[in-house]
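Closing statement on the iron/sulfur cluster sub-project.
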Amino acid sequence: MRKQLETERLLLRPWEEGDAESLYEYAQDPAVGPIAGWPPHRSVQESLDVIKNVLNGPESYAVCLKDDCRAIGAIELKLKGHTDLTERDDECELGYWLGKPFWGRGLMPEAARELLRHAFEDCGMKKVWCGYYDGNTKSARVQEKCAFIYQRTNKDVDVPLMHEKRTAHVSCLTKEVYLKQFIAYCGLDCAQCDARIATVTHDDELRVKVAKEWSELNGVEITPDMIHCTGCRTDGVKTPYCESLCPIRRCAQGKGFKICSDCDDMNRCEKVGAIIGNNALALDNLKGY
Ligand code: SF4
Ligand code: SF4
């Protein structure tokens, strides 16, 4: 069976025929489909047909709250042959929508970040494309939050299911830009950090190992439940130290810097010096940012 993906609040799992009623509940809403290019569903049977014939791609997921596992939205990596945005095997298109009652809670950026992680780290993608039709500001905001970069605007694009033409905006995220998000303020690479790896792979054994090692290294008790971190500069859970105690993160955030290499004082700074003095890779990451 295909792997499920997980975030702090969400489970992303393959669609099942039993999701037809919840799909219909949210997809019948005229505020949801038309702005994304498809008409509201008219019956549970139509939703069932969509599950069987449309939401059946190898990287198509029902977005569910972990609490009850009900499908409240959809997210997909559209692979070659199922997207107009690329013809390459190592590129794909991200598509998504969420039921209206769940808007405004940051759930779709949370789901999109996990699917992007999956695309780049598990599926070997080099570039992920994404688009939105003019006026779909919510979709644009998700792309902005996930570091997509605007590429072009296409006018008079056919929207076949709505029998009309629209203006479409296209953006993309390269693996290089995706990985840059995981360079911490101090230059350490969060993508290589075992705390992040344990978090994104839900590996409790690794959590226990990291907690033990960090306790010995720092001379304080660090418990496995503290080892939850998605990265220094990305949205999402952090270890208690990184969240509120790390002097470098607090300082750089307080000064409004994207990263410490933006700071004119970096070469004189003892705080960041304690990291880059012993870690040539961190220094390289800062220099190359
Ligand atoms: S911020 Fe989190 S992921 Fe990054 S180095 Fe610190 S613990 Fe690891
Ligand atoms: S003084 Fe500058 S280099 Fe040092 S921690 Fe603050 S932002 Fe980073």
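Residues 248, 251-252, 255, 257, 260, 263, 265-266, 269, 271-272 surround iron/sulfur cluster (ligand 2) (CB under 6 Å). With this model delivered, the sub-project is considered complete and its resources will be redirected to Aim 3.
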